[in-house]
């Protein structure tokens, strides 16, 4: 009798513990996992955009340097023409 009572109380206690861990906690855990996945995707997208912007800045810097060098050469040519002109 004691043995069957112990087994029966163990089964009832196990069932009660299973009832305490409701599916709400599992749903909340799944929602949090989904949010973390979504944030990870957003971070990787932002990292990609930042890399693209850094590349564009470098391209702009190179174009600016090239334009500056061309302007300096044009100014030098104008200075040479003005220096060789006599009236």
Automatic annotation (TrEMBL):
GO terms for molecular function: lipid binding; peptidoglycan binding. Keywords: Cell outer membrane, Cell wall, Lipoprotein, Membrane, Palmitate, Peptidoglycan-anchor, Repeat, Secreted, Signal. Its main location: membrane. A lipid is attached at residue 20 (N-palmitoyl cysteine). Pfam families: LPP. Belongs to the Lpp family. This is Major outer membrane lipoprotein Lpp.
């Amino acid at each position: 009798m004691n043995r069957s009572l112990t087994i029966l109380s163990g089964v009832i206690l196990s069932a009660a513990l299973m009832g305490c861990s409701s599916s709400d906690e599992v749903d909340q855990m799944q929602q949090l996992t989904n949010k973390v996945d979504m944030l990870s995707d957003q971070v990787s997208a932002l990292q990609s955009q930042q890399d693209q912007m850094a590349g564009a800045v470098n391209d702009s810097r190179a174009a600016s340097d090239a334009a500056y060098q061309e302007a300096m050469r044009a100014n030098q040519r104008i200075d040479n023409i003005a220096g060789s002109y006599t009236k």
